[in-house]
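Every protein is a chain of amino acids, and every chain bends into a shape of its own. Below is the pair of lines this work produces for a single protein:
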Amino acid sequence: MVGRHRSKAKSLTVSLVIGLAAAFVLGFAVWLTGNFSRQDTASMAAQMKPLPTTSAPTSTSSSTTTPPPPPPPVTTTPPPPPSTTTSKSTPKSTKTTPKTTTKAANACSSVLEGTLPHVAKVGNHIAAKFGVDEIGGRASRSGTSDHPSGLALDFMVDTATGNAIADYVLAHQSEFNVKYVIWRQRYNDGSGWSTMEDRGGATANHYDHVHVSFEPSGSVNVTC
């Protein structure tokens, strides 16, 4: 009986040792598994952390370069001073001075074939206007004539020029102080042409020259 009890005790001791060994192994396995799970969790947490974004500096740099530089100040040229226009008008008044001087220089001469001054001025004016080369002035005449007193002129011309001179003189009769005109055997004192008697020749009948008689006095203002 004693031997049976010893065998039972041994078997209990062996099973107890085995149970403790198994519990130790199981505990160690649990500890080891828990340790691995913590490391995996920490590594996963580290991997799941959001990475720092580097686009922020890019956006800030782009935002700083977005606004364009301010435009340069516009410079406007001031209008020209009004004194320039007044200076332009000065030469205009200067140009008028030579014109008046030219008119004074073109005054007709008061000397022509011994006639009176006002008669000579009209004679020089007509000669310049119609291109007359031959003019008769003071001269002796038989009968009644204004030539001896220097109050008559004879313009030796052709028919066309004579017609133009006769019409021109009669149109300015009062201005030229003209008394009458004889041309182509006709007489005109301003009241119209009247036929004269035949005096026997072309010169006597005034076919080759226009005769103009003037009033004894008067002022004439003509140019040549």
Observations:
- The beta strands are 135-136, 152-156, 178-182, 186-188, 194-195, 209-214.
